[in-house]
Amino acid sequence: MQDVRVGMVGYKFMGKAHSHAYRDLPMFFPQVPKPVMKLICGRDEAGVKQAAEQFGWEGYVTDWRELLQRDDIDLIDINAPSDAHKEIAIAAARAGKHLFCEKPLALTLEDAREMLAEAEAAGVKHMVGFNYRFAPAVQLAKKLVAEGRLGQIYHFRAWFLQDWIVDPDFPLVWRLQKEIAGSGSHGDLGAHLIDLAHFLVGDIDEVIGMSETFVKERPLPSSMTGLSAKGAKDAPRGPVTVDDATLFMARFSNGALGSFEATRFAPGHRCTNSFEINGSLGSVKFDFERMNELQVYFTSDADDVQGFRRVLATDPAHAYSEAWWPPGHTIGYEHTFIHETVELMKALEENRQPAPDFRDGVKCQEVLEAVDRSIAERRWVKTSEV
Ligand code: SOE
């Protein structure tokens, strides 16, 4: 079993989540190749130096191109802001490096398709970071659907609600700028829901949506800041160029109906990533804020005990759980990244594509783009049109 030597671009929120996954993985999943934390890259030298030391990287660089020249790096992990994904991924693929890229894959569908084509042409492995697939409760939902235990699927209903920009004085951070983020709640939160829909139910045929930007101008930030930035009321303001909320309806190829809601304007909802699936034989309900649980209902239960039951997905019967703690000892957000990385390491060892890969990233981007077109043209749009 060969170690996988990693070079990573980005050191903020996702940089920390991925670094943590690389560090913890060998302790709990010794059966898969060990990720070796070679170099981390960021433009701000003081910031990246501090991150390298704190997260446990061997060293740091300030230009990602240096990572590509190194013979002792096998995998490039890209978690810089979305506008940087394409250039880095394509150059890394051409340099023969495997790719692990955060979502959304790119700013546009065209760019995402180019990234996939380049990765395929270079013959490297590629993965996209849809981490919520890897919560054991989500894996259980997938298993119940795949084994037919929910019967024919009628509905997929999903909502991802946050509230970190409700304050109109929250600054104009990069996630609110189209040229850097691509879109707002749609690509940031909706992308996760779309991937879960693909994973759990199947392909989406057509969509119709609507979106809104409730706060059109915000104070300009003094530096590159994240979700916990503080605004200054009297700072000059600039235009918000992304959606604050995007909702859409969908028809799946298998006949199921879907509804999706992504918003950053739901006070009280910090990170409510939820879905329900209703089938002819039962239903499941998931809420990320209670991520160890899956609510399960089977029509076949005896009349006197009909109802949703709470399954705590921490038993050896549940994906990844045996590697962790005794049943009932719950896990958290960071574990979804560890499980995702386990899948990546396994795939590299077995010389096959991991899942989800750039094809899944492109498929997600097709739906994002079809929704955008449907909003612009006020009509149903088929995913095959984009
Ligand atoms: C911020 O909205 C964010 O961190 C997203 O960027 C992540 O992808 C999502 O998992 C949680 O919220």
UniProtKB/TrEMBL annotation:
<dbReference type="InterPro" id="IPR050463">
    <property type="entry name" value="Gfo/Idh/MocA_oxidrdct_glycsds"/>
</dbReference>
<dbReference type="Pfam" id="PF22725">
    <property type="entry name" value="GFO_IDH_MocA_C3"/>
</dbReference>
<dbReference type="InterPro" id="IPR055170">
    <property type="entry name" value="GFO_IDH_MocA-like_dom"/>
</dbReference>
<dbReference type="InterPro" id="IPR000683">
    <property type="entry name" value="Gfo/Idh/MocA-like_OxRdtase_N"/>
</dbReference>
<protein>
    <submittedName>
        <fullName>Gfo/Idh/MocA family protein</fullName>
    </submittedName>
</protein>
<feature type="domain" description="GFO/IDH/MocA-like oxidoreductase">
    <location>
        <begin position="138"/>
        <end position="284"/>
    </location>
</feature>
<dbReference type="Pfam" id="PF01408">
    <property type="entry name" value="GFO_IDH_MocA"/>
</dbReference>
<keyword id="KW-0560">Oxidoreductase</keyword>
<feature type="domain" description="Gfo/Idh/MocA-like oxidoreductase N-terminal">
    <location>
        <begin position="4"/>
        <end position="130"/>
    </location>
</feature>
<dbReference type="InterPro" id="IPR036291">
    <property type="entry name" value="NAD(P)-bd_dom_sf"/>
</dbReference>
